[in-house]
Structures are given as structure tokens and as C-alpha cells.
Amino acid sequence: MLTIRNATLADGREVDVRIDTSAGRIAGVGSTLTHSGDSIDADGKLLMPGMIDAHVHFREPGFSHKETWETGSRSAAAGGVTTVVDQPNTDPPTVDGASFDRKAEFAEASYVDYGINGGVTPEWDPEALFDRPTLALGEVFLADSTGEMGIEEDLFREAVEAATDEYRVVTVHAEDADLFDEEARERAGDDYDAWSAYRTAEAEAAAVERAVEIGAEADARIHVAHTSTPEGVDAAKAGGATCEVTPHHLFLSREDYDELGTFGRMNPPLRSEQRREAVFERVADGTVDIVATDHAPHTREEKDASVWDAPSGVPGVETALPLLLEEARKENLSYERVRDLTAANPADVFGLTRKGRIEQGLMADLVLVDPDASREIRGEDLHSKCDWTPFEGMRGVFPELTMVRGNVVYRDESAEYEGIDADGEFAEAVGENVRG
Ligand SMILES: NC(=O)N[C@@H](CC(=O)O)C(=O)O
Ligand SMILES: [Zn+2]
Ligand SMILES: [Zn+2]
């Protein structure tokens, strides 16, 4: 048994949390727990459920030079993420039994728990995928992005039906390439805003509408990945789907290209400041279900190319919760909203019934933070293989301690906790597949 004493929860309650470390579960939450066994004095600091990041690209197998399960999951743990959901655009793509099994072997190196999604290409093998502990189907690409896995509508419909028969959620990358602005293609390679002009907001809204229509016909559970526009969010919600927003679409806009260049290129692209604000409002008021990072690392060398040649994607798994906690510190979001967006809602959307909340009986996936300890984000301080961040110089509130099923996997070495004697920043890589 381990007790975290004097913790403050997102709703303001001051509690002790008792952890059954052998079961990895929360044994009790209350104010008058008896303190037998080990204990940590939280000294009034904030205790949050670990973030469930429903959208990461940890790049193995195939692209270990960009990220590995080890570096990606360390970055996750240091950012307060205790579960990640990995996407299928690896090499080989995760579309059949052999590729799933291969990825599952790499994932054993993970410091945090994980789900592995199955992908869809014309060669996919749904039976083999669903036979395995696949968390969800997706991201299913309705347009090409990194990995060129864009598929036609007929195959999408088939995939949605197959996933629904197997009780899997379908995560969709919703852009319609027919609505991309080909004229923008003529802009020069150093006009970085051309990427946003090319992959239009209309292309997102139209694809979301189509995806939720097809989903409704099949009675499917559709989850729209990385919605970047208020139109995309509204179309998803009106069609009965759930949706996620990334930190980059929440905190960056087309106005940041001057600073970011191709390091601000991703799919869907950055939008106008006006659209960014409208998306932020929908996150703050609870319309948006989830904040997920779409952590998509590429090396500096790869990114350092013309706007038409650079790969799409930015890292984000370590900075998402810190950026949101900074917004809460500034009272632009409530702590309860941050908790729901990062933990309770992703647990509900992906059926992770034993995760996402600080309640008796649930898994002890926990993050302890000093809510006032805001600091500048520096790429060189982060733990991803990707040594840059699009959020350089912005402020974040980083965790001091991250626990996965009762195991301390990360602690900030400058934070002192009586009762914790982990040596160094990271302890053991205890990550497991959330589907067993
Ligand atoms: N978002 C991106 O721009 N890139 C992602 C793929 C994706 O999520 O579309 C990647 O894997 O690099
Ligand atoms: Zn995508
Ligand atoms: Zn993605």
C-alpha cells in the first residue's frame, strides 16, 4: 500500500489517495484514510488522472530515426501522459496480423500504457486485425498524409462496417483532397502559409460531414481526429461523432508561420487566428470531447526543406498537459475541463473503463503537479528524439511525478518528495497494452 497524502484534486477537494501497488489500483480516496505503509506528502499539490493521449505516432517499426517507443513513451511520461494510442502509418503499416504483431513487440519498450490501432489500405486484413488486441480502427485516412494511406470512399464504408461489427471505434483523418486549392500550389517554397491555403478549411468540413454520414448509415462510432476548424468540430458533433483537437490547433495559427516556417507544417494545417479562437471556445465550453496531440515527430533535417517538400507533423506528447495546465493557471480553462479533456473523456470514447478517473477501484495512473510552477518550454529539455518543439518559448506547467498503475515511471529530479526514492528521472518501462 502507498498513500498520497494532502493532494488537491481538479475539483478542489483535498484528499488522501490510497494505492494498492500490487494491483496497480486506487484502493480509496478520502480525507480520513489510515496511513499504514509507505506514503508521499503531496503538500497540497494538484493530483490529476494521467493523460490518455488518443493520438500519437511513435514511428516504430520503420522510422526509428524520428522516434522510438522508448523515447516517445519517456516523453509521454515526462509530460504526464500515462496512456498513448499509436496510429498505423508505420513501415510496415499496421494493417494485418504480421504488422500488428511486429508493432506489439516494439511497444513492449514503452514506459506508459498503450493502445495499438489498426489501419486501412486496399491490402488490409480486417479479420486478422480484429482477432488481435487492436484498440480502435484508425486513423483511417480520407486524404494522404504522412505515409500516403489515403483511401477511397467505398473502402472507407467497408472499413466502418467491419469495425462496427467488431465493436471498434473508427478514428478518421477527415480531409477531402478534391477540395484542396491547387492554385495555392503555385506559390513559392518559402511562402509557408501556402500549406494552409492549399489544404482548405472547406476540405475538412466536407470530409467530416461525409464521414459522419457514412458512420450513421452503419450505426458506427466515429471519432474525428485533429479537427482544426470550428466548422469541422460542429459537423462532427452535429453528426453524432466525437472529436479531438490538438494543442497546435489550439495554441498556434497561420500567424506563426513567420516564426515556424515548415516546422509549422502539419495536416490538417494551421488555421486563421479567428478560427483558432473559435476552436479554443469549443474546447473551453465542452463541445470538443478530447485534446489529443497527434504527436508526429520528424527530424530537424527532414523539416528543413521547402514548404512543398518538408514532411507534415509536429511533436507534442510532452507539452500538451503542461500547456493546458498553464491555461488553467491563467483561468482560461478550469482544472476540471482539463481533467475531462485529457483523461475522463478519452477513457469514455475508447472504452478504457478502468482508466481516466481518480476513483476507488480504477487504475492508479496519476500525475502530481505544482500548479504554480510555470516555466518556459524548451525543445532541448524535452525527452522525444525530436529535439524541437513548435511551442518553443511558450509556458507550461510540467508534472513532478507520473505514475502508471501505481508505479512511479517519471519524476522531476528537482522536486523533492519524502517517500520517493526513485533514482534518476525514469524508473522502469512498465507499459502494457490496454487491451491485454
Ligand atoms: N498530422 C501530420 O501532419 N502528420 C502525421 C500523420 C497524420 O496524423 O495525418 C504523421 O504521421 O506525420
Ligand atoms: Zn491525421
Ligand atoms: Zn496523426
From TrEMBL:
Q: Which GO terms describe its molecular function?
A: allantoinase activity; dihydroorotase activity; zinc ion binding
Q: Name the domain of life.
A: Archaea
Q: Does the keyword Hydrolase apply?
A: yes
Residues annotated as binding Zn(2+) 1: 55, 57, 139, 294
Q: Which organism is it from?
A: Halorussus gelatinilyticus
Q: Which cofactor does it need?
A: Zn(2+)
Question: Which residues does Zn(2+) 2 bind?
Answer: 139, 173, 226
According to its UniProt record, which reaction does this protein catalyse?
Answer: (S)-dihydroorotate + H2O = N-carbamoyl-L-aspartate + H(+)
Gene Ontology BP terms: 'de novo' UMP biosynthetic process; purine nucleobase catabolic process
Q: How is the cofactor bound?
A: Binds 2 Zn(2+) ions per subunit.
- Free-text function comment from the UniProt entry: Catalyzes the reversible cyclization of carbamoyl aspartate to dihydroorotate.
Alphabetical keyword list:
Hydrolase, Metal-binding, Pyrimidine biosynthesis, Zinc
Q: What are its E.C. numbers?
A: 3.5.2.3
The protein's name: Dihydroorotase
